[in-house]
Amino acid sequence: MSWKPIVVGVDASPEAANAAVFTANAARRGATTFHLVHAVPTSERGRYPYTRRDEQIRTRIVAALGNRVPGALAALTVHGGQPAAVLNDAVAARGAELVVLGGKHHSTIGRWLGGSTSVSVARTTLVPLLVTVREPVIGRVLVAVDQSGAARPTLAAAQRYATLFGAELRALSVIEPLPALLDMPQPDAAENYRLLEETVTRDIWPQIRTPGVVTQVRHGPALETILGETAEWRADLLVVGSHGKGSVTRMLVGSVTERLINHLPTSLLVVPAATVELEAGAFSAVNEEET
């Protein structure tokens, strides 16, 4: 299956430059195009659709890239608006299948007040989001799935990207402890684990078509378990699914995906639930190529 264009959000930071370099290399591997996009808040941009300030921004960003990204000036566009909205519009306009951002760490209060661009994009994007750490070299891909319908597109994406980079793939499913319910009979934990492990073995692992993939089932809190496996195996790319939880839930407890974005144990690919059909098609294509 051919690759569609890739959109990368950039500014003048070193993290954005590394993301742009990585994207250019990935696009070359996938025989597709990449597009650098910078968002300027409308209040700072002025009344007109294109201003001298835009040209100054373009010059500054291209200078920050140095000579590391061939054709950067031609690939770079500047748009007015909030970053997530601008990037989503760019994806739609280009028919892109991936958004790339350079990972940055924010303070807890900064995330609570305004949120990072990566989290904002992850909440709204219809295509996978890749948040890079440094300029990654992808040799090991770890995909973490639960026992929901999100497992299929997440596994499909992981296989697709592992194939692109010629990387080793490992799959992990985490079974979390049952929540304690007051004044109610508690289910048998061992029986619950057994049933969920059977579900993973029967329904999840058969969706993997890439030969030689090691599969693991672990018990424990999802975030800590995923972080531990990522560090122990020294994964270069972690692939997870996003369930699109409501804003109230995110504000109160946060999702595992958003906490991973904020921790960034390694480069992270977030596959939104909305890509079920798209990634299922990619999954079928991977299967056809290997058979």
Q: Which fold name fills CATH's third level, the topology of the largest domain?
A: Rossmann fold
How much of the sequence lies in strands comes to 15-25%
Shape: elongated
Structural class: alpha/beta
CATH architecture of the largest domain: 3-Layer(aba) Sandwich
Largest sheet: 10 strands, mixed
Mean pLDDT, to the nearest integer, reads 83
What's the structural domain tally? 2
Helical percentage: 40-55%
Task: Specify the number of helices.
Answer: 13
The stretches of 5 or more residues where confidence is low (pLDDT under 50) are 107-114, 245-254, 276-291
Can you identify the CATH class of the largest domain? Alpha Beta
Looking at CATH, the homologous superfamily of the largest domain is HUPs
Number of strands: 10
Question: What is the H/E string?
Answer: EHEHHHEHEHHEEHEHEHEHHEH
Determine the N-to-C terminus distance: 14 Å
Strand order of the largest sheet: 3-2-1-4-5-10-9-6-7-8
- Rg on CA atoms, Å: 20 Å
Quick structural overview:
With 291 residues, the protein is an alpha/beta fold. It contains 13 helices and 10 strands. β1, α1 and β2 form a beta-alpha-beta unit.
Description:
- A ten-stranded mixed beta sheet has the order 3-2-1-4-5-10-9-6-7-8, with helices on both faces.
- Strand 6, helix 8 (151-165) and strand 7 (168-175) form a beta-alpha-beta unit.
- Helix 5 packs across helix 7 (117-124) and helix 8 crosses helix 13.
- It has helices spanning 14-29, 42-45, 52-65, 72-75, 83-94, 108-113, 117-124, 151-165, 189-204, 222-233, 247-252, 256-263, 276-290; strands at 6-9, 34-40, 76-80, 98-102, 129-132, 140-145, 168-175, 214-219, 237-242, 267-272.
- It folds into two domains: 1-134, Rossmann fold (3-Layer(aba) Sandwich), CATH 3.40.50.620; 137-291, 3-Layer(aba) Sandwich (Rossmann fold).
- It is an alpha/beta fold.
- It contains 13 helices and ten strands.
